């Protein structure tokens, strides 16, 4: 029942010996979804032992190099490894041309399908769903078109316990309806309610990734009450003018958003290379919002059931 985020890179702009630029992998019950794919991401995948052949969906927030320059390399490596599953890529529409022009120039004919999902809306939209998970865009305010992504488990079914199944001798064909919250029907079940036979559903967990952005409260309704919010904090607050002019945020501003959205915990990242330590980011944010972590490459954050 995993819901786990692995930080592959938490720096901004250029790779340094301390930090790789942005990439993360979200594992929701063995679905591996990548967010951004900066230069060097393949090495980070190896270093932190992520099962990267399992990645079937890659979400690219925007077309600044520190968020996507590792993508074509990763696509090529999948080809060299003999991948045969379709790879789904979600990103700004220009990315499709960038990927396929590079493959064409090197006369690379992939042995698997790449399905490109073009993002160009300025409104939040549902871009992926399966039986357990939904992914929505979070439109951000950056120098170029940019989205964050909200990963949200679907509403879960009520649970059956071994004890209750044995106690009431529940027939197999009745189980799907019970999980769906329906009362049992039929002879002998008249006085028994669904709540007598099932346990409450586990809650649905959620993770919001907010990529490069100016401080904007427009995202608050979209990320309300999420379990974990990642919000960029390129600068500390003494550089808030610089943050504004470059369409970035400070640690204090990220904490303000976390507070307004009533999230459970906040992750900070995308630190400018001028800062060697991330602890000042954490301390600055803590003055506004207590449950905060300034992430480092290789951190794994689990969202409990
Ligand atoms: Zn960036
Ligand atoms: Zn950017």
Structure description:
Helices cover 24% and strands 25% of the residues. The protein starts with a strand and ends with a strand. The longest helix is centred in the N-terminal third of the chain and has 12 residues, at 94-105. The strands form two sheets. A seven-stranded mixed β-sheet has the order 6-5-4-3-2-1-14. The chain has a seven-stranded mixed β-sheet with strand order 7-8-9-10-11-12-13, covered by helices on one side. The chain has helices spanning 41-47, 71-80, 94-105, 162-168, 175-179, 194-197, 220-223, 240-245, 251-260, 279-286, and strands at 3-9, 23-28, 31-37, 55-59, 87-92, 114-119, 126-129, 133-139, 147-153, 206-210, 228-232, 265-269, 292-294, 300-302. The protein has two domains: 3-156 and 202-302, Ribonuclease Z/Hydroxyacylglutathione hydrolase-like (Metallo-beta-lactamase, Chain A), CATH 3.60.15; 162-197, no CATH class. The protein has ten helices and 14 strands. It is of the alpha/beta class and 305 residues long. β7 and β8 (133-139) form a beta hairpin. The chain binds zinc ion (ZN) (2 copies). Residues 62, 64, 142, 212 line the site of one zinc ion.
């Amino acid at each position: 029942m995993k819901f786990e985020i692995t930080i592959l890179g938490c720096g901004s702009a250029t790779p340094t010996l301390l930090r790789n630029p942005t990439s993360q992998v979200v594992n929701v019950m063995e679905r591996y979804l990548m967010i951004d794919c900066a230069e060097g991401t393949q090495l980070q995948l190896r270093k932190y032992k992520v099962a990267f052949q399992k990645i079937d969906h890659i979400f690219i927030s925007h077309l600044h190099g520190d968020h996507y320059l590792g993508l074509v390399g990763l696509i090529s490596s999948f080809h060299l490894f003999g991948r045969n599953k379709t790879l789904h890529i979600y990103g700004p529409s220009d990315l499709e041309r960038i990927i396929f022009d590079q493959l064409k120039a090197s006369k690379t004919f992939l042995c698997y399908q790449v399905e490109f999902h073009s993002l160009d809306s300025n409104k939040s939209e549902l871009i992926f769903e399966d039986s357990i998970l939904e992914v929505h865009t979070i439109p951000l305010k950056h120098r170029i078109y940019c989205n964050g992504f909200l990963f949200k488990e679907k509403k879960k079914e009520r649970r059956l316990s071994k004890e209750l199944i044995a106690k009431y001798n529940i027939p197999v064909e009745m189980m799907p309806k019970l999980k769906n919250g329906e009362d049992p029907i039929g002879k002998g079940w008249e006085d028994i309610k669904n709540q007598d036979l099932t346990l409450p559903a586990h809650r649905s967990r959620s993770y919001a990734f907010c990529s490069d952005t100016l401080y904007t409260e427009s995202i608050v309704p979209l990320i309300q009450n999420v379990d974990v919010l990642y919000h960029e904090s390129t600068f500390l607050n003494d550089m808030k003018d610089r943050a504004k002019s470059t369409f970035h945020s400070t640690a204090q501003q990220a904490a303000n958003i976390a507070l307004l959205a009533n999230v459970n915990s906040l992750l900070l990242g995308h630190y400018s290379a001028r800062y060697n330590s991330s602890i000042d980011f954490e301390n600055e944010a803590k003055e506004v919002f207590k449950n905060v972590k300034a992430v480092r490459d290789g951190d794994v954050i689990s969202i409990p059931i």
